[in-house]
Specification:
alpha/beta; Endonuclease, Chain A; 16-stranded mixed beta sheet; two-stranded parallel ribbon; 20 strands
Length: 488
């Protein structure tokens, strides 16, 4: 009996020592170079569920790319910055508004491409028309086509896109393709898509592959979330849309009748070189192939428009959260109106403060989100911010189900806009590789306003009175999801 008691005491002592060691180590390791909210969330997880919390932290606790990839990105950033330092990329619009050039400098200092002028950009808001317009541009290719999408699926809706790739590849046009590994693996048509790329002779690679047996591994929930297409360095497309059916071919979406609503921009002019530069940097990151001898990304042609454009890449390969900093700067820059479209709006403290401060300054602030969510945790985390936003004076428009408003954009006053792949959530700020386009030009903002008005007509306004009638169980669920969103 005494032996059993001694053994039990030793086990209890070992557990106690382990528990104290884990807690002390967590306090030292977790907060380092991490937001206070994220650090607090991780510490709570480790303190309340030590074994699970520690395992999760070891698996997804490092938001950075592996050191080798970070060094690659640093080399790319230096090369682009030094090579483009004194280039004249089109004629810029005259009379820049006060503070505008400081926004451009902010982007440049964080690793963005140079500002370019003489660009043309037009929006495509119809889902199938966007796919077919990209297919038409591909068919005009003479030298190369660069395809980079978070999700790429060969299905009936995208068949025209893939047939266009097959046709130009048969003529000897070089087709290079990048697609995110984790986002596509196990999805419908994954194997069929890769087989079709092989059959046409495309050069394709998986982005951020999680293949430890092949020596390729990083935090498994890091994503390359970019969506872009470049044809011959003369025409480019970028925005929020993936190359897949509007249901994403997922049984659960089809059962619920869900369809995605997206927005793409067709671009001509010197800005195309900047988008191509993002593709070539991602290609180098995945393949170690430098294509600068074959493709001079800064050999630009004047476009048919007069827009000033700047491409802003962001992600864990950069030291700063480029997209978040630009969003914040624009919110404080705005003087009259800010309209935000973001399917996943889960702000950090700085962004929430900037949005509500804009209201307190007397600005008209509108936020477009979806009435129905496709990702439960993000959907509920987003809802946890509605009360604070509504009380501050933000007008919230909920795009009616069964459609998922997936567009990502911001318009500021009547001259500045952003469109791209970046959501306004902590995942897009810290974990996803994104691409955003910063545009100056009233004609482009006018197009954006037209799209926003279309969204408004297909949405309903959420009022504070309606929100305050939410049942307690919904509030509890929303707040719990808000806590988990900080685990970065």
């Amino acid at each position: 009996m005494i032996t059993v008691t001694v053994e039990a005491t030793w086990w209890l002592l070992l557990v106690l020592v382990f528990d104290v060691t884990v807690r002390i180590t967590a306090v030292i390791v977790v907060p380092r170079n991490r937001r206070p909210t994220a650090a607090t969330a991780w510490l709570l997880a480790i303190y309340f569920i030590p074994l699970v919390g520690v395992l999760l932290f070891l698996l997804i606790g490092n938001p950075r790319l592996p050191r080798k990839r970070r060094k690659k990105q640093a080399r790319i950033n230096r090369y682009i910055h030094e090579t483009s330092e004194n280039l004249e990329l089109g004629s810029l619009r005259p009379d820049p508004p006060p503070g505008y050039l400081s926004l451009v400098a902010l982007n440049r200092n964080l690793g963005a491409m140079p500002l370019s002028g003489d660009n043309d950009a037009h929006l495509i808001s119809d889902y199938q028309k966007s796919l077919d317009t990209m297919a038409d541009a591909i068919r005009a290719a003479r030298r190369y086509v660069h395809v980079e999408f978070y999700i790429l699926q060969s299905d009936p809706s995208t068949d025209n896109f893939f047939r266009a790739l097959e046709e130009v590849a048969a003529r000897g046009v070089t087709v290079r393709v990048l697609l995110d590994h984790w986002a596509n693996r196990g999805k419908p048509f994954y194997r069929r898509t890769l087989e079709r790329l092989d059959a046409m002779g495309a050069q394709w690679h998986l982005m951020l592959p999680v293949q430890p047996l092949r020596g390729k591994y990083q935090r498994p929930d890091l994503r390359n979330h970019r969506k872009l297409l470049v044809v011959d360095g003369s025409v480019a497309f970028m925005g929020s849309q993936n190359i897949t059916d509007s249901t994403y071919n997922l049984r659960k979406n089809i059962k619920r009748g869900l369809h995605w609503v997206d927005l793409m921009a067709r671009l001509e002019g010197p800005v195309v070189a900047s988008i191509n530069g993002v593709f070539l940097s991602d290609w180098y990151s995945e393949t170690d192939q430098v294509l600068s001898d074959e493709i001079d990304i800064f050999s630009v042609t004047e476009g048919p428009g007069q827009l000033d454009c700047q491409v802003v890449p962001s992600g864990p390969g950069f030291d700063g959260e480029n997209n978040l900093r630009l969003f914040l700067a624009l919110l404080y820059y705005a003087q009259r109106k800010v309209i935000i479209v973001s399917p996943y709006f889960v702000p950090d403290e700085a962004l929430l403060l900037a949005v509500t401060t804009a209201c307190e300054r007397g600005l008209q602030v509108e936020l477009f989100v979806s009435e129905e969510g496709d990702q439960a945790m993000v959907y509920h985390a987003q809802r946890s911010y509605y009360e604070a936003l509504l009380k501050a004076g933000v007008k919230i428009w909920m795009y009616r189900k069964p459609f998922i408003l997936h567009s990502k954009s911001m318009t500021v006053d009547d001259e500045l806009a952003i469109i791209g792949s970046s959501n306004m959530d902590m995942r897009s700020f810290g974990l996803n590789m994104e691409i955003s386009l910063f545009v100056r030009g009233g004609e482009f903002v006018a197009e954006m306003r037209g799209v926003e008005e279309m969204y408004r007509e297909l949405s309903r306004e959420l009022t504070l009175e309606e929100w305050e009638k939410q049942p307690l169980r919904s509030t509890v669920l929303d707040n719990l999801a808000r806590l988990t969103s900080a685990l970065q």
